């Protein structure tokens, strides 16, 4: 499962599939291509992405694709493999007729530090990824995401005291307590309300503020819901 998001001006594509369970993949293969996929015209980008897919396909017997970054004018492909032998030569043969300038680095990274520190989403980034489906559905219905409306956010806790402590503090950051959520799946949960827009910046700001307080009280963020703007 590939997900895409932005982090501090860099585009990131990350593989969130079951690859993290493959412990024998110890070698990080980094392929740096001199191509700025954020600034080139659409036709060149489409051609480049087709080439990227061909690289992934040609290396699939030797390495698992874990993600991509576009940063500082370079597009970077990342893989993990069991062995390092022969990889550099295989990559060279793939790029030989491509016309793309590239560099390659192969390092041992048995703990997958690069993946978790540079590609894997933070909690906030993950919730923004989860939010994307709802946002795209609303856009498809013609919603103006920049128009503020009441948004409900849902938070659950392991104990009643954690929930009560959180509710007593959440109004300080502009969220209003709206209702208890009574369900077997979420035994200590609340609905909060706040009027705000649903563009990326607004979601990042409001979810980010909530997460800081939720973590303090050992809670769990359960996403949000909102009507279409009037």
Instruction: Report how far apart the termini are.
Output: 35 Å
**Uncertain regions spanning at least 5 consecutive residues:** none
Give me the Rg, rounded.
22 Å
CATH class of the largest domain: Alpha Beta
What is the average per-residue confidence, as pLDDT, rounded to a whole number?
94
Number of domains: 2
CATH-derived architecture of the largest domain: 2-Layer Sandwich
**SSE order, as H and E?**
EEEHEEHEHHEHEEHE
Protein name: Putative cytoplasmic protein
Domain Regulator of ribonuclease activity B: 134-224
InterPro entries: DUF695 (IPR016097), RraB-like_sf (IPR036701), RraB_dom (IPR009671)
Domain DUF695: 13-119
Structural description of this entry:
The chain has 230 residues and is α+β, with helices and mostly antiparallel strands. It has two domains: 2-119, Alpha-Beta Plaits (2-Layer Sandwich), CATH 3.30.70; 123-225, Alpha-Beta Plaits (2-Layer Sandwich), CATH 3.30.70. Helix content is 35%, strand content 31%. It contains six helices and ten strands. It has helices spanning 42-59, 87-95, 113-119, 123-140, 160-170, 200-216, and strands spanning 2-7, 10-15, 27-33, 63-71, 74-81, 102-108, 149-156, 176-181, 189-196, 220-225. Strands 1-2-4-5-3-6 form a six-stranded antiparallel beta sheet, sandwiched between helices. A four-stranded antiparallel beta sheet has the order 8-9-7-10. A hairpin with a 2-residue loop joins strand 1 and strand 2 (10-15). Helix 4 packs antiparallel against helix 6. The longest helix is centred in the first third of the chain and has 18 residues, at 42-59. It is elongated. This is Putative cytoplasmic protein.
């Amino acid at each position: 499962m590939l997900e895409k998001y932005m982090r501090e001006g860099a585009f990131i594509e990350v593989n969130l599939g079951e690859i993290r369970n493959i412990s024998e993949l110890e070698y990080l293969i980094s392929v740096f291509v001199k191509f700025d996929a954020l600034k080139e015209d659409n036709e060149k980008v489409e051609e480049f992405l087709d080439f990227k897919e061909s690289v992934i396909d040609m290396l699939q017997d030797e390495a698992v694709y874990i993600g991509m970054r576009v940063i500082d004018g370079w597009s970077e492909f990342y893989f993990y493999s069991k062995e390092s032998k022969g990889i550099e030569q295989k990559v060279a043969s793939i790029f030989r007729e491509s016309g793309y300038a590239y560099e390659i680095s192969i390092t041992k990274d048995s703990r997958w530090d690069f993946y978790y520190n540079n590609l894997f989403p933070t909690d906030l980034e993950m919730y923004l990824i989860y939010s994307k489906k709802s946002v795209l559905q609303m856009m498809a219905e013609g919603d103006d995401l920049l128009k503020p409306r009441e948004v409900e956010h849902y938070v659950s806790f392991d104990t009643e005291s954690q929930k009560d402590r959180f509710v007593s503090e959440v109004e300080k950051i502009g969220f209003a307590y709206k209702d208890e959520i009574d369900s077997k799946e979420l035994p200590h949960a609340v609905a909060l309300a706040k009027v705000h827009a649903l563009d990326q910046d607004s979601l990042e700001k409001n979810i980010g503020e909530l997460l800081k307080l939720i973590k303090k009280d050992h809670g769990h963020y359960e996403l949000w819901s909102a009507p279409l703007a009037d």
